[in-house]
Amino acid sequence: MNDTITAIATPFGSGGIGVIRISGPDAFSIASKLFSKRKSRFEISEDFESHKVYHGYIFDHQALAVIDEVLLIFMKGPSSYTAEDVIEIQAHSGTYVLRAVLEEVLFCGARLSEPGEFTKRAFLNQRIDLTQAEAVADIIAAKSANALKFATSQILGTLGEKIRELRERLIHFLSLIEVNIDFPDDVTPFYPSENEILGLADVLEKCRGFIKQHNDACFLKEGIRVTICGSPNVGKSSLMNRLLEKDRSIITPIPGTTRDPVEEGLNIDGIPFVITDTAGIHQTDDLVEIIGIEKAKSHITTSDIILYMKEPGTVFSEREFEKIVPQGKKVIFVVNKIDINEGNLPRLSEKYQHIPAVEISALLNQGIRELKQKILNISIADLDMAKSPVIPNLRHKKALEQAADSIEAALAGLKNGQAEEILAIDIKSSIDSLGTITGETASIDILDNIFSNFCIGK
Ligand SMILES: Nc1nc2c(ncn2[C@@H]2O[C@H](COP(=O)(O)OP(=O)(O)O)[C@@H](O)[C@H]2O)c(=O)[nH]1
Ligand SMILES: [Mg+2]
Question: Does residue 7 contact residue 20 with C-beta atoms inside 8 Å?
């Protein structure tokens, strides 16, 4: 962290402006070797004030030619993104011009940054905790309004605060045990009060609550998986294309047209879905179709929601339904081709009356809005996102699970009169697990893994 890093912080390609970032102890001196307020000849300026914007020109390092007309911002640490001295040069955005400026910055002594290195420095300089650093990546990756909402709440440090609070309660509990270990002559064994045990159980409860929130909400980030299934030719591919509002799947009157599952993202009211169109399930000797049907079945198993399709002239059979749709799956019964309805639409049996049903015509684009609304309702029905905007990610969830396991072991140990030393180990391990979330105890591996997923310049 003693050197000065630089990178192009904006996407490659042509655009209005492109930003080059420099961070580190030499940021300011490097910039002053290149930046001149005068255009006609290079003139070093040293009277920069922090957090002001300066207009001027970037010269090549021999101070002979102007490379670009720019705005320059100097942010004195610690009031900057990395908490170090930071320079941002706003140049014109073109692949060539930005590279030319970058090369000059490198020539003057900066080093090209690694992915996520700016954010990593902000973390290592303790300006943000690890959950906030991760939120930066999540904000960039957000593909829906909800994903963005959760990421921005995380960047405010809400999750970090809650985890730190739990961790401090564990540290307090550990200190109660350790006082006893440290004075072994004192023969009184460790007896936490009823209240202290309840407190520990409460920390466990809170960890579990976070894990549940992750499980409930992870699909809001990755997309809720919806699989369209049914017999050949019911109009699965036609429905897929209607939902996506584009021709994604091939449609023909020939049964068995769709073989490989076709997958595509779809956003309904800010919630991301991944829709899969599958091969029609039926008895066949066609080898390729058989493989397609196997794939369809595996998609159905891993899917969050099934659209079970039927067409006029067929009947709903409980046996067939139960063979295709695993018990307990969220299902919507979709009757397609109502435009050729001759009063013979398939109906749900008595036993399955509770399943939401919708009648559509994929051909005439009828009932599609209603179906989308049903998909939305069924996906968010048992979610209570209003309670907490804080959603732990998969890494957090794993750490929370480890912490919960250790607390559980400690609680069991307390019941069985476990030796204090063992209790202390369990509590310590839960403290460490929670510490990996905010970064207090995160290993180099964890840090490298997190920051390597960032883009360069962030
Ligand atoms: N009349 C009518 N025909 C449809 C409708 N939806 C699909 N089809 C036709 O049914 C045939 C099979 O459609 P396709 O989407 O390929 O079915 P899949 O095998 O289930 O994927 C094609 O000829 C479609 O044009 C509909 O709503 N009404
Ligand atoms: Mg098809």
Answer: yes
Q: What is the mean pLDDT of the chain?
A: 89
CA 272 to each of CA 220, 264, 375, 380: distance values in angstroms, whole numbers, following the listed order: 6, 11, 11, 12
> Which of 228, 244, 251, when mutated, tests ligand 1's pocket best, judged by the most ligand atoms within 8 Å of its CB?
251
Q: Give the residue numbers spanning the domain of 446.
A: 141-218+393-452
Residues 6+ apart with CB under 8 A from 384: none
Number of domains in the chain: 3
> Does the C-beta of 339 come closer than 6 Å to ligand 1?
yes
Question: pLDDT (tens digit, 9 = 90+) per residue, 152-197?
Answer: 877 888 889 999 999 999 999 999 888 777 776 665 666 788 899 9
- Please give the number of the atom of ligand 1 that sits closest to the Cα of 256: 19
Domain boundary, last residue among 349, 380, 411: 380
Output the DSSP codes for 160-182. Answer: HHHHHHHHHHHHHHHHHHHHHHH
Query: Which residue is closest in CA terms to ligand 1's atom 8?
Result: 235
Looking up residue 326, the CATH number of its domain turns out to be: 3.40.50.300
* Cα–Cα distance, 25 to 44 (Å, whole number): 19
Query: Please, which residues have CB less than 5 A from ligand 2, an ion?
Result: 236-237, 257-258
Q: Is 334 in the pocket of ligand 1 (CB under 6 A)?
A: no
